Structure formats: structure tokens, C-alpha cells
């Protein structure tokens, strides 16, 4: 039986992998549970784990440097499955420098893993999820739910017609385990979207329903959003996130990806968007 190492015990997908692959060894900078070991990706030379055949990376993929890859290879790694993001594509031309930087980091990290695999005889698979959620834990769906609880409504931009495909962390964890022993997935990258495509407005309405509340989703024109964020920028010039009006404007941008290749190669079958809080 091969040994599995999961890098990122506290990530959304890492938490779910603890249920799906309980015999795996999980790394974190603050081990708290049985089966967790210390690993600081900034200083991987201190890692003294056992030999592992398969590695699943749920931490930010750009932290997997050549030094980290070499350390894992010397400890027996023959297969690596790493989570990237479809943001690699959707934020490449973002007006926000920080978002473009993230897209560049994702792209470079994917290329680094592919190149390392080619030169060290390590099979790789890159998984690129769309909008990840896990009730009460994520910064996407759960943040919207928190705003609904706080305000009683959720403001939209220009009707929020952009399409979304939220995908649950448990479906991604299952996908990572499923690809390990399937030859068809070796040296490939897959986009992993959710089980249905719905507008941003409908996604928010679904969250209201999950909270047992009627949807209150007032819509304001883009110009008003720009004005509001501009005022925030004057009052709090250091609040980079609050200055990012593009987050609101993107409510009307389609962020849609096809996961049929994943379904064909390893039976990927994500659930419909039905959050439970």
C-alpha cells in the first residue's frame, strides 16, 4: 500500500481530506491532531517525515518551490496532485495589480511542477477549482452568508447576472483521492467546476434560502458602486480590499468552466449548489 502525504491540513480541501483519507499524513505549521506533522513550506529542510509515494497539495500552490519539490522527491514522491485555481485565467487581465499577481503566481507554480515532474520522473496532476465553499469556513459563500446575517440584505451590482459554479470542498477532496491511481490523469490539468451553473444573483438567493430567509437583494448600478468605493478609498486609503470595486463589477462577468474532461477521466461528479448552515 502506498503512503499518502497531504500538505495543508487546515485548508478547506485539507480538512475534508481528513475524513476521506484518514490514514494519510497531514502537514501543518501547528500540528494539533494525530496524523499531523510539522512542515513550514518556507523552510522545508526541517521536514523529517517518512517516505511518501503520493502527495496532495492543498496549500497555496505557489508555496511549492523547487526546494520543496526536491525535498519531497528525495523522500520518495512519485506522484503529486496539486490544487491551483481557475483564477489563473479569470484574473490574468484584472485591473487590480494584486489579482494579476496571484494569476501569475498560479501560472508559474503550475509550470514549475510540470517541469519538475518531467525532469524527475514524477507524475503530476493539477486541479483547478472554481469558487470553493464549505459552510462556515470559506471566504466566498460563507462571507455572503455572514453579510446576510449582519445586514438582512445583500447588495448587488447591475442585477448580478454573471454566471458562477460553486463547488464544495468535499467534492474536491474526493477528486484529489480519485485521481491518484488512474493512469489517464497523469501529467494533466483539470478545471473542476461545481454541479450547476447559476447567476450570481441566484447563488445569493440560494444562500438566503439556506438561511431560512426571503431573498432581499437590492441592485445598484455600477456607477454607484464606483462612487461608493471611491469614497471609501478617500476615507481609508490603505483598505486595499475595500477599494477593489472590481469585486462588485465582476458580479456581471461569467466565470464558467467545463469539467467534462474530469468526469470522463476519473468520474468527477460534483453536487448541486445546496449549502447547509
Automatic annotation (TrEMBL):
This is Epimerase. It comes from the Bacteria. The lineage of its organism: Bacteria, Pseudomonadati, Pseudomonadota, Alphaproteobacteria, Caulobacterales.
Amino acid at each position: 500500500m502506498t503512503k499518502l502525504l497531504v500538505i495543508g491540513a487546515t485548508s478547506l480541501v485539507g480538512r475534508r481530506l481528513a475524513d476521506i483519507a484518514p490514514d494519510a499524513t497531514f502537514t501543518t505549521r501547528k500540528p494539533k491532531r494525530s496524523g499531523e506533522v510539522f512542515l513550514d513550506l518556507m523552510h522545508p529542510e526541517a521536514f523529517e517525515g517518512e517516505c511518501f509515494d503520493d502527495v496532495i497539495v492543498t496549500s497555496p500552490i505557489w508555496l511549492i518551490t523547487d526546494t520543496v519539490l526536491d525535498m519531497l522527491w528525495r523522500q520518495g514522491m512519485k506522484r503529486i496532485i496539486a490544487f491551483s485555481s481557475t483564477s489563473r485565467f479569470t484574473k490574468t487581465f484584472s485591473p487590480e495589480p494584486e489579482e494579476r499577481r496571484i494569476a501569475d503566481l498560479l501560472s508559474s507554480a503550475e509550470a514549475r511542477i510540470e517541469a519538475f515532474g518531467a525532469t524527475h520522473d514524477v507524475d503530476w496532476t493539477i486541479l483547478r477549482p472554481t469558487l470553493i465553499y464549505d459552510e462556515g469556513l470559506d471566504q466566498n459563500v460563507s462571507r455572503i452568508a455572514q453579510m446576510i446575517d449582519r445586514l438582512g440584505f445583500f447588495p448587488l451590482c447591475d442585477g448580478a447576472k454573471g454566471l458562477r459554479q460553486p463547488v464544495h470542498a468535499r467534492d474536491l477532496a474526493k477528486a484529489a483521492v480519485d485521481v491518484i491511481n488512474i493512469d489517464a490523469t497523469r501529467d494533466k490539468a483539470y478545471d473542476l467546476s461545481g454541479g450547476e451553473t447559476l447567476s450570481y444573483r441566484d447563488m445569493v438567493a440560494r444562500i438566503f434560502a439556506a438561511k431560512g430567509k426571503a431573498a432581499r437583494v437590492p441592485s445598484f448600478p455600477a456607477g454607484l458602486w464606483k462612487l461608493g468605493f471611491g469614497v471609501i478609498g478617500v476615507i481609508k486609503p490603505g483598505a486595499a480590499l475595500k477599494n477593489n470595486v472590481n469585486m462588485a463589477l465582476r458580479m456581471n462577468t461569467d466565470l464558467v468552466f467545463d469539467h467534462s474532461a474530469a468526469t470522463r477521466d476519473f468520474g468527477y461528479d460534483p453536487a448541486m449548489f445546496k449549502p447547509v448552515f
